[in-house]
Design brief:
31% helix; 9-stranded mixed beta sheet
Amino acid sequence: MPIRLPEVPAAGVETIRSELQELLAEPELLQGTFGAASVERLVLSAPHRVFTVGLEDLVQRGLDAATPTSVRHLILDGGQPVASVEVNLDGSFNHVNEGPFVAATASAVLAAEALAQVQAGSFELRLLRVSALHTMAVWLKDESGGNDVLLPMSPGPVRLEPGRPLDLAQFQAVVQELAREHLAADPAAAG
């Protein structure tokens, strides 16, 4: 299989199911189609580790500085993505999101599966989050070496075309330049 999904601890999945039941018991707190869903119809899909990196680390060490912070799942209802849910690495609940990155993730994963280099290789599905730059990308980590592929998602910086596959060097060059510009404009944003 060209895209490998990480093993997910059973305790994390049980935490997710329990939290979803509680959330869906109060649908008025939720938006969109997720609020109208029932737990029995929901399917957890495409688990992937979320990696984050701060601006200074990004400038100095690139994506080598990115660290895993959580495991994220897409939540499907009738085969359609309606939300995402994250659990911390220790299996505790983090949050549910119904925003634009939910559908963007599903689209990016589908696009990635069609790439010739992905079909010919073996890649771990990851998500990269650079919060200070309002940037998220599906990160396909090449398990045999340095041919990682990143697909930026919308909304994000205009210099990163949503869904356009970039190799690690291309993506890193853009986000490092954005990080340098951001740090020059706001030195307090270094974290």
